[in-house]
Sequence to fold (198 residues):
Amino acid sequence: MFTGLIEEIGKIDLVERREQVLRIGVAAERVTSGLSVGDSIAIDGVCTTAVTCDSHRFECDIMEETARKTTLNDCRLGNLVNLERPLRAEDRLGGHLVQGHVDTIASVRRVVSGTSKRELEILLPEAIAKYVVATGSIAINGVSLTVARIDGLRAMVALIPHTWETTTLKDLRVGSKVNIEVDVIGKYVEKLLVKRAE
Fold:
């Protein structure tokens, strides 16, 4: 379980396809502190497991299904990624509960990056848009954000300067693909209501 508060931006230094597994290596400094083989770590919002690690980098294996459903399938050497270690029981929950189970890949429709205003507008698939509500939570590339507006399939989020500067969201352009995880509570509520109606 994660919070969507990014700890560090890492750099992809290995991309290797092995049959049905994608091996990814990430150079990092902060998140590798205390990291052990078998520990979870979120890469651009995707929960992965460290299979090798030292104080300067780690590697993880991405299964074919996960690769296909996330932007990690298209990662390249030198790409920058958002990194977060899992939430500890004694930690403050500063963002929102993020599972690291990406729901879909979406497209950036608009980017506003002025000095006083930083916004992203994301075009969501119809099957996912129903779970997104104004002032609700959404994770974009692993970053916990509040939905400022929702208009049909378009969700707009505003970013404070700190989030803009300390995540890879500032590098997004119109047409960029992003990992989206909606708030899981909406999906559970939907399932309960459907069951009750049967």
Observations:
- Residues 135 and 147 are 5 Å apart (CA to CA).
- The chain has two domains: 8-84, 104-197.
- Residues 184-197 form the longest helix (14 residues).
